[in-house]
Amino acid sequence: MSLPKAELHLHIEGTLEPELAFELAARNGVTLPYADTDALRAAYRFEDLQSFLNLYYELMAVLRTEQDFADLAHAYLARAAAQGVRHAEIFFDPQAHTARGVGLGTVVGGLWRALERSRAEHGVSTRLIMCFLRDESAESAMATLRAAEPYLDRITGVGLDSAEVGHPPAKFREVFDAAAALGLRRVAHAGEEGPPAYITEALDVLGVERVDHGLRCTEDPDLVARLVRERVPLTLCPLSNVRLRTVDTLAAHPLPAMLDAGLMCTLNSDDPAYFGGYAGDTFDAVRRTLGLGDERLRELARNSFLASFLEDDEELRARYLAEVESYEFR
Ligand code: HPA
Ligand SMILES: [Zn+2]
Hints:
Layout: E1 5-11, H1 18-28, H2 37-42, H3 49-59, H4 66-82, E2 85-92, H5 94-98, H6 104-115, H7 118-122, E3 125-133, H8 138-147, E4 157-161, H9 173-181, E5 185-190, H10 196-204, E6 210-213, H11 221-229, E7 233-236, H12 238-243, H13 255-260, E8 264-267, H14 272-275, H15 279-290, H16 294-306, H17 314-326
Parallel strand pairs: 1-2, 2-3, 3-4, 4-5, 5-6, 6-7, 7-8
Helix pairs in contact: 4-6, 8-9, 16-17
The chain binds hypoxanthine (HPA) and zinc ion.
Active site: 192
GO molecular function, one term: adenine deaminase activity
Binding site for substrate: 271
């Protein structure tokens, strides 16, 4: 669907399509433990978040040079633009690369090469959000933040991702405080597989401005009431929830009930190369399967721009919002 939209929950490493993975593997002399792209695609059957993360981290071995990261981001931006994305706030996982000996400068430098040309080349404005891996230590997160200081002119915010259960937000209190002191925006994955209490903790302890996923808030009516009252944006990823078995089927996804409850929901693709669809595909799927009407879809698109970190360019946000309001559904 070409409805203008912002994508606020997108892991750039999760846009690595099998074809590009094999191309980069050949370029870098990396051997993948899959015969070809079909064999790799056949491995995209996940039991839960961890089984996905295992493959997600394994495939990153092909990303080695600045050019690799630039090619990865360029391919994503072209696809996103073709599906109506006007603005993308892109996550990346520095620790997953520095642990393999790929420097932070290589990662940020490569991504930036694609991002700085994106408005002119694809009509997509962008921001970068650096995520800490919550299954790594708080010390490692703090070291990553310090290592990122030379690049903060290109980084808008920090996030928190990877294996959730057993790694509550409070573990990262100090690094999020330090990030705030550096003027960085804050978001965190919470309530994907973890309990509703992690959502509350992300808000109260980490000071996040958006909750990534936040799906399990539905189990706690008081929390839902708070999220509605405070208009906390949730970056939902329904195709991801189905593939990682957080919900049984797309038809059973609570998105319609969450909208009816007044929650400020946005629709996102998370790791589109792995979960079967980019942003426009996600809008198409919820329209088809959940029967969301045009005005609900418009609300989701409007929310995406309202929840985006465009405070430094309100003129651009206003232009995007006007495009949403005048969009004609077919
Ligand atoms: O959906 C996700 N959840 C947590 N960590 C992640 N890293 C990439 N995608 C995800
Ligand atoms: Zn995610």
